[in-house]
């Protein structure tokens, strides 16, 4: 016992002597050694895991590449973004669901296709409120309205960089040969489809795979322009009662479109299939947003000069989808990764990113300080048509993805084929939608 006490006292004495030497100026060598050691210690960059569908033929791949390069230039010494490319929306959704179930989520995910609600309910999502309050410039870029749309119980769970302003694109050459112009009413829409068929053209590029995107945009428009009741339905989050005259009527009309007016591969088709059918002039109309415009002049996707054939219009009855995307969510475990992930989300959504999305994929920006010049509109006439159509709209409504529960969105992939093949009626589809929605508890 005394031996250890003596050793302890000797250690204290050594410390005291060292302190005295330092006080007399004798510690310069020690200080230099310490400083030298500190200079050799460098923090390892924080690695962010980021699986993404913004790759391959996705229209957002080009702006994302630029945004990532700019982020790496600014933060490369402290943050490394480990990108995992996932080549379709469906595969992305399935991958994130698996990671949620295992509790091994990446640092940043997108809330699309119901992932937003799953992440919030699972307690995985970071609240952006303190970060937005501390950065008013960023907050202004993504707007209060967009943040509110992606908030629940006063907490901001995701940040988006754009609003979906979605009409439909049409082949002007086919329309001219069929002797038609964009329909003002739904009756005229069906008349146009008949005239396109008579002229030898397939009217619609529909799909039932993934989230039934191009098909559900038309369904949303049928419901959302069907008077006040239909419009209210399409602006209501998480409906549990689809048994309304507006929904049944719209599903009946969708049944006819799937049976009579679309491509032979529509049942089971994914987005890339539907997009290719329009780009290769196998269909006259596709419902989609402005981000597709860049594809029209991309000679790897369409014939040279195809963009000159494309027009853009609002839906019949003066309707247009106006919805905020679910946006980017931080799902990191620890504080250091959360801080780094927030910086990355800011890079994905701030003014500079919105400008890249506008210029490279024709996505209409949210920020009031990203100006769309007259010169840009002249160089981008299809986008200008959409902007003009958007300026005088009677009905605005959300996407099916926005309002539906995640399991309801998934259900359409099975219900649309049954509807198309007369295995179910619109009323039976509605019953299935109600039963699926009822499985959710808010």
Automatic annotation (TrEMBL):
<keyword id="KW-0813">Transport</keyword>
<comment type="similarity">
    <text>Belongs to the bacterial solute-binding protein 1 family.</text>
</comment>
<dbReference type="InterPro" id="IPR006059">
    <property type="entry name" value="SBP"/>
</dbReference>
<keyword id="KW-0732">Signal</keyword>
<dbReference type="Pfam" id="PF01547">
    <property type="entry name" value="SBP_bac_1"/>
</dbReference>
<dbReference type="InterPro" id="IPR050490">
    <property type="entry name" value="Bact_solute-bd_prot1"/>
</dbReference>
<protein>
    <submittedName>
        <fullName>Raffinose/stachyose/melibiose transport system substrate-binding protein</fullName>
    </submittedName>
</protein>
<feature type="signal peptide">
    <location>
        <begin position="1"/>
        <end position="19"/>
    </location>
</feature>
């Amino acid at each position: 016992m005394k031996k250890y006490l003596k050793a302890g006292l000797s250690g204290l004495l050594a410390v005291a002597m060292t302190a005295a030497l330092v006080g007399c100026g004798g510690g310069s060598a020690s200080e230099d050694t310490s400083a030298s050691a500190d200079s050799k210690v460098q923090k390892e960059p924080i690695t962010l895991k980021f699986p993404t569908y913004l790759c391959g033929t996705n229209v957002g791949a080009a702006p994302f590449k630029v945004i990532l390069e700019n982020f790496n230039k600014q933060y490369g010494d402290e943050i490394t973004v480990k990108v995992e490319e996932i080549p379709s929306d469906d595969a992305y959704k399935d991958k994130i669901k698996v990671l949620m179930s295992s509790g091994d989520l990446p640092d940043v995910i997108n809330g699309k296709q119901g992932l937003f609600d799953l992440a919030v309910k699972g307690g995985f999502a970071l609240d952006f409120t303190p970060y937005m309050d501390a950065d008013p410039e960023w907050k202004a870029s993504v707007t209060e309205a967009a943040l509110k749309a992606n908030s629940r119980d006063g907490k901001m769970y995701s940040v988006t960089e754009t609003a979906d302003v979605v009409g439909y694109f049409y082949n002007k050459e086919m329309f001219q040969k069929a002797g038609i112009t964009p329909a003002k009413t739904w009756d005229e829409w069906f008349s146009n489809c008949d005239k396109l068929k008579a002229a030898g053209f397939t009217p619609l590029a529909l799909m039932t795979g993934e989230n039934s995107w191009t098909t559900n945009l038309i369904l949303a428009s049928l419901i959302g322009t069907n008077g006040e009741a239909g419009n209210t339905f399409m602006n209501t989050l998480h409906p549990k009662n689809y048994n309304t005259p507006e929904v049944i009527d719209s599903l009946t009309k969708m049944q006819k479109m799937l049976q009579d007016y679309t491509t032979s591969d529509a049942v089971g088709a994914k987005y890339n299939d539907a997009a290719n059918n329009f780009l290769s002039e196998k269909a006259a109309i596709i419902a989609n947003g402005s981000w597709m415009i860049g594809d029209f002049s991309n000679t790897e996707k369409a014939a040279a000069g195809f963009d000159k054939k494309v027009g853009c219009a609002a839906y019949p009855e003066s309707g247009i989808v106006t919805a905020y995307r679910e946006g980017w969510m931080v799902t990191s475990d620890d504080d250091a990764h959360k801080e780094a992930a927030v910086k990355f989300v800011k890079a994905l959504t701030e003014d500079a990113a919105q400008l890249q999305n506008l210029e490279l994929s024709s996505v209409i920006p949210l920020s009031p300080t990203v100006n769309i010049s007259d010169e840009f509109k002249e160089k981008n006439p299809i986008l200008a048509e959409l902007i003009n159509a958007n300026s005088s709209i009677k009905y605005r409504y959300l996407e099916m993805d926005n309002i539906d529960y995640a399991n309801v969105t998934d259900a359409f992939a099975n219900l649309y084929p049954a509807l198309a093949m007369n295995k179910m009626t619109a009323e039976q589809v509605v019953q299935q939608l109600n039963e699926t929605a009822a499985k959710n508890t808010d």
